[in-house]
Amino acid sequence: MNRPLEKALSDFGAKSASRFFMPGHKGTAFSDFLPALPFDVTELNETGNLYQAEGVLADSQQEAAKVVGVPSLLYSAGGSTLCIQALLAAFFKEGDRILLPRASHKAALHAMGLLGMEPVWVPSPSGLCAPTDTARMVYKIKHHECDGVFVTSPDYYGICADIKALSVACKEAGIPLIVDSAHGAHLPLAGLPHPIALGADGACVSLHKTLPALTGAAAIYLADPGKTDQVRHWMSVFGSSSPSYLIMLSIERCFAYMDTPSALSDWQHLSKRCEELRGISQFRLPSTDDPTRLVVNLSGLDPDQIKQRMEACRLIPELLDTQSAIFIPSPFNSEEDFSRLKTFVRSIGELKGEPEAAAVPPIPPSLLSLREALLSPKESVPIERAVGRICAEVVSVCPPATVLLAPGEKIGTNLLQLFHSYGILSVNVII
Ligand SMILES: Cc1ncc(COP(=O)(O)O)c(C=O)c1O
Questions:
Q1: Lowest CB count within 10 Å: 142, 184, 257, 289, which one?
Q2: CA-derived radius of gyration, the chain
Q3: Do 278 and 253 lie in a common domain?
Q4: Which of 374, 69, 368, 78 is CA-nearest to residue 216?
């Protein structure tokens, strides 16, 4: 892939011009820990503007779109959070009912609340690595219970939703399908199609989660290039007017990496490694749609003992709770990293345990709109004193990023035990 942004920044640097523009580090302060600092510039004629349809950054985004094979692509230096805000604002309008699984990230709920949209919930599946209930979603789409669909795929557990089935139903109903693929930027390298190839209208990917890119690096994929200007506009509404050039440069580098044959072989090799680890214990490491996501089933085991074993192996997972540990490996992990992981998996592979069904949190009744509840004055109270009151924030647990309580929902006594089990001691309620 051509790298227009990197070329523009290198050419600009070669001029050795005096930097009387932002940022204040002038490309020299802190250069001992950040050699890339000279590339951290601002919007100049030479360096382009992320929110304009022409220039170096537009060229770079077109190059990246070719790499992943999508009709249109936009960079985000504000993670998938910014992408979700822009996608929801561009595809839906105030008052729209959005169908989404309870296992959705709070970024989506916050954006929907601020934009005046209402959730139509689909309960979370029970158990580790269970797929989204597509049949239930399709039923609701067919019965016109929503004006659009927002679904996460893959989820934290590397499980994909049936995007094809959802897209067929959405197209028949004439409503948009947006996919939160924050955890799936690497999927094409792992041999799986991206959501646009499966019929989604828009999707976001957090490059920084699984691929070599700086934190905050993400992208939007669009099926219809005619939608690009509108989505870009909303990116400029919600995003910083000074998006980081270092993050944007890392995005360009990341797509250029995806375009190399070595990236494909790197990820094939990684998939094989993960397969070998799963071979040690299929009970402890259930299979996932994403071949490179490692979910360790901890049911029946003592969480403190597991934590100690992990520490002894000097491993830090992405997430750890009483049910599971999630590891996000990449080709950039070292041999030593994989050998430690193997030691850990071997050591727990022999331990016996009964599979425990994870509790499916009930969906409480909603007494206020999402927006009203989000914007209302609130106070933090211990959960025991919160019973009977209206929740003013998104209370969720990770993994699997399931919403326990959404703003506007009434807090019932049945949630207390669940809150305790997740160590949630207080909650924001409406005054
Ligand atoms: C499913 C999902 N969607 C969206 C986000 C937000 O992504 P970002 O951190 O790139 O803003 C996350 C972050 O963890 C996530 O897990």
A1: 142
A2: 23
A3: no
A4: 78
Q: How far is CA 187 from the centre of its chain?
A: 13
For 164, list phi and psi in degrees, rounded to 5.
Answer: -60, -50
pLDDT tens digits along 70-125: 999 999 999 999 999 999 999 999 999 999 999 999 999 999 999 999 999 998 77
CATH number of the domain enclosing 32: 3.40.640.10
- To test ligand 1's pocket by mutation, which of 153, 186, 206 has the most ligand atoms within 8 angstroms of CB? 206
Q: Give the domain CATH number at 413.
A: 3.90.100.10
**53 SS3 class:** coil
Residue to probe by mutation, ligand 1, list 81, 88, 207, 238, most atoms within 8 Å of CB: 81
Q: Is the CB of 218 under 6 A from ligand 1?
A: yes
Whether ligand 1 lies within 6 angstroms of the CB of 81 is answered as yes
Look up the domain containing 201 and give its range: 4-258
Assigned domain for 365 exists: no
- Give the tokens for residue 213: 């890119």
pLDDT tens by residue, 203-227:
999 999 999 999 999 999 999 999 9
Same domain, 288 and 309: yes
